[in-house]
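job 3f2a | input accepted
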Amino acid sequence: MKKIVAILVVAFGFNSAIIAQEHKKEKFEETLTVDQQTELAVKKMTLKLDLTTSQQEKIKPFLAEQIADRKAMRAKRKEMKKNKQKPSSEERYKMMNARLDKQIAFKAEMKRILNAQQYDRFEKMADRKMHKMKKKMHKKGKKRRKMEHDDDK
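job 3f2a | predicted structure (153 res):
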């Protein structure tokens, strides 16, 4: 019995530490300016894709625009959540359509700037990131459903 309790305490502590670290990372990114986030993103891409300086300069404005858009959307979502509003189906459609158009344009631009080998690596990185994000959202949805289920009791 003592072993079970000890294991549960360790597992709970480990889970709490992971959640706290994720929360810290989100807060850290919110305090950075768009320029700082862009610089960090370009450097990460340079390390992973072996970008030349001219490629870095070409990619920088696209990343800056993407980061600024993401910040604006996050602020808009926070404001809507604060006011307990949800976008209508038409608004949601327009937002998703605009987001997909931006993704297509970004991907086309990256294909133009990067060579074939770099682009292949870029695609693999994007796929991994998308998979990771979907997994995270799935976990978040499970937690939300569990909390709603517990509230119903």
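job 3f2a | The helical segments are 2-31, 34-49, 53-82, 89-113, 116-152.
job 3f2a | closed
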